[in-house]
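Limitations
The structure tokens in this dataset are predictions for the assembled complex, not deposited experimental models. Users should treat interface geometry with appropriate caution, especially where small molecules or nucleic acid strands are included. An illustrative entry is reproduced here so readers can see what is and is not provided.
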Amino acid sequence: MYGWTGNILRINLTTGAVKKETYTEEFAQKWVGGRGFAIKILYDELAPGIDPLGPDNKFVVAVGPIAGIPAPNTGKTVVAAKSPLTGGYADGNLGTRITEHLRRCGYDVLIVEGRAAAPSYIVLEDDKVSILPAGEVWGQGTYVTHDWLYQKYGRAAGVLSIGQAGETMSAYAVVRSLEGRAGGRPGMGAVMGSKNLKAIVAKGTKPIPQADPQAMKALGAGDLKKVGDMDKKSGWSRQSTNGVLAWCNEVAALPVRNMRRSHHPDAWKVDGERLNNARVATYGCPNCTMRCGITIHDREGRESELDYENIGMLGPNLEIFDLDQVGSLNYMCDDFGFDTISAGGTLAFYADAIDRGHTTGDFKFGDAERAKELLRLAARREGVGDLIAQGSLRMARLYGHGSESYSMQAKGLEVAAYNCKFCPGMALAFGTAPIGGTHKEAWVITYELNQTRRESYGPEKAAKVIELQRIRGGLFEFLTACRFPWVELGWGLENYPIYFNKITGLDWTLDDFWRTSDRIYALIKLFWLREMPDITRRFDDPPGAWFDPANADTEGPIAGKILERDKYDSLLQHFYDMRQWDRRGIPTRTLIGTLGLEAEAAGAEKYGRLE
Amino acid sequence: MTVRVKLIGPLMYETGFSEKDVEVPAATTVEALLDLVSVPRQRPKIVTRNGRAVAPEEPLADGDKIAVSPIYSGG
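Predicted assembly:
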């Protein structure tokens, strides 16, 4: 077997047991890697109903067969577990040197089980595995933690760590790596924290098994250069992801004031042009030639690496238009290890709830200094911070008064920085994203606004959402590569089966990838069914406020417009029909047979009904 | 008549401005305006008029805001 190491490392922190396991070629070809490995392992090994923050949950680190091998842009790793935020399957990817080093230690998957008696960190050095005390950095942020580990293991080592938010088990604590990399929005950092696991370090020297390493080396290096040249020609990384902020403001899709508004006259103050002008450094992931991490000095003079989602959610969505203050909030999230999207969404919900008299408090939109204090309180779980650390949906359920409708989340995960009060296709993308309100699965909004009628709820939008889910939530998540060369520069998707085949020695086409992708999406839905046997199609809804006529813009390009529930439901049905899912959004028996998921489905039927 | 042109993302570095008012004859089309401000026709782009998608042949009105963006595909 080429391309895959064939090995899983399993570490039990309760007992200290370390076990090297093998997996079969059949497993490799059925689930490929990354998200595919993660959902299959968690589906098989987690009993439904377990406490996400208890020792029975498992923290999975998984990569794909092209990961870590120089080619565009193969530095990504998936982290996954049952989510303390949503209660379902969750994962996220991040650029990290762990990707290459995990594989050079001889593994494609690391499974961490149990709970250490005291704060600990794991070190992999080729075949050697150590579980060491982390008490010295417990209570420290991710920057201090990374420096502490770099001093011991060198800056070339792969490092994943959590900050205080992970230690105190905030429901949206992330896993962090390198300068500004973060992954696992629905509380993957909290799962590490629940295990008393502060960090994971890997240093490997073994070769990664490849069918044709010489050909791949030449191809990968040449293609990395081509992508870099394409980026220079297009100028994309001049503003990187934040170029889109000005466009969102023009077309009324910017999150402003907990998404009450969709554009703002001061948005230009935090747009891509201003970000590029303020740039003091640029960072990127391993194996990347289109580095997107634009770094500025924040209000306190620290280096803060920003992208569009950070800025949209911590800036306009809180009505904060001082870029350096947005930088400060972003730096604090990165250091504490909070997800910036959920932090921005949750703080905005809190300000909105105070505005509406649904709770009491002293936080107002636009108050950056108070927002900083609330993040500190949330990281320590003190006062109102204890609630803020749990996300907007739990806050809404406590506050009542119908506030759940303006907790801007799907499946409990705060939606990213696209205000879809009048973008039906993008609202569908958020509603049907398998881990909750992430933009990463199907970023359909430019297609929707440029190539379709915005007000359409037609099947073309459902088809596009599925197409993008197969590519973005499928291919790039199981190969564990970054989607940006394809999505932003037009680097051809046909390159990925070429890499895959050179590395594995197989003869796959994109159609094989799409089938794998559909299998993964189906199994994630079965995971949810086991957790929620009474699941309905309402589980695939976007936030309620996007259907509320009282929340329509009063001026601008979409004045008076809002999503219509009946029409959204018909769009959702198009999506289900195309996916061969039933009216509840659960894969049908026919599809289960096509995808070879009979054994998994039999397990699910002990808990929920299949049609 | 006067229309406002806003260029988004890297387009501003190629053309040398990010936002400005432009004087054009009545009934000037979107395409003619973009030629006037030197946005290359062959460059893939999204053009909006007052926040809504617009066709190249559509005539402009006084006070319009035309925004031109690269085709962003995701953050």
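Some entries come with short summary sentences. For this one: The interface with chain B takes residues 234-236, 238-239, 241, 243-244, 246-247, 250-252, 263, 272-273, 307-309, 416-417, 439-440, 443, 446, 449-450, 454, 472, 483, 487-488, 556-558 of chain A (CB under 8 Å).
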